[in-house]
Write a structure and sequence with these properties.
By secondary structure, the protein is mostly beta strands. Helices cover 4% and strands 52% of the residues.
């Protein structure tokens, strides 16, 4: 996976990447767009729907490719790319970032090569849906809040091949303080660490983690892997988690219902379960 990242970064540096045939027509229309983002880094300061109309890349190694600095903003990438591979594996830049904002929606984005693909720092009412995040260095989708009243919905995203930040042991596909994490695919987690902690979906607070697929961990005997870590406040239902025999727990949640977990030293660690009293879903 590191080799793939290096090859992609080299291609960007050499100017070898180009729009695939038909990419310029990725959007079905721009009638609802308040404005457009045509270069990065960029900052959105006005509410409304902001759109991409072409692939964008940046080599910044810190800061944010796109900063959302207003409430009630929708960023619709229309299936175009926000790329940061040119910054290399030591980058601490974020792809899309918002801090203490309300009602931010991010959809239809391809986000690649950042420390955090999507970073929502506090705030409430956020929606992250229908995005593809690949080759990000630490976390694909991140939302953190100290308040249990704040909320985020994360659904229908693909988060693939996350990891590689130098010396970082904690690698998460999705890590949120949220209300609902639903129908996402998290595939491929790896760490540049002798004792990695790989978590497909890390969920904090009271809410539901439902219908997700988590698979492909590159850990080792000294590491730890978890498919879904929702702790006591979370409900995990109808998820499929496939490990590779590494130390760890497939699904760790307050309530488990109708999940499938295999390939971990402990498949379930659930406080209660619909099926039996010891917390083992069947």
């Amino acid at each position: 996976m590191l080799t793939v990242r290096s090859l992609l970064a080299a291609a960007v540096a050499a100017g070898a990447l180009y729009l695939a045939p038909g990419a310029a027509q990725a959007a079905q229309g721009y009638d609802n767009c308040t404005g457009f983002i045509d270069s990065m880094p960029a900052t959105i300061t006005t509410q409304g729907t902001w759109c991409l109309r072409k692939d964008l890349s940046t080599g910044i190694t810190s800061g944010n490719a796109i900063t959302i600095a207003a409430n009630n903003v929708t960023l619709d990438c229309n299936d175009f790319k926000i790329g940061g591979l040119a910054a290399g594996e030591a980058s601490i830049a974020n792809g899309i970032h918002a801090k203490e904002r309300q009602n931010v929606t991010i959809r239809n984005c391809s986000i690649r090569g950042f420390r955090l693909g999507v970073s929502l720092d506090h705030g409430s009412g956020h929606l992250v849906e229908d995005n593809h995040l690949d080759n990000n260095l630490a976390i694909g989708i991140y939302f953190h809040s100290y308040s249990t009243n704040n909320s985020a919905v994360v659904r229908n995203n693909r988060v693939t091949d996350t990891g590689g930040s130098p010396g970082r042991s904690n690698i998460y596909g999705i890590s949120v303080s949220g209300t609902l994490v639903e129908d996402n695919v998290v595939s491929g987690l790896f760490a540049d660490s002798a004792t990695p902690d790989l978590v497909g979906i890390n969920f904090i607070g009271r809410g539901v983690v439902r219908g997700n697929l988590v698979t492909r961990f590159a850990s080792n005997a000294n590491g730890h892997a978890a498919g879904i870590r929702a702790a006591s406040g979370g409900v995990a239902e109808r998820n499929v988690v496939l490990g590779q025999g590494f130390p760890g727990v497939g699904i760790d949640a307050g309530i488990c219902r109708d999940n499938t977990s295999s390939g971990f030293t402990e498949e379930y660690d659930c406080f209660t379960s619909r099926d039996d009293e010891d917390g083992r879903s069947r």
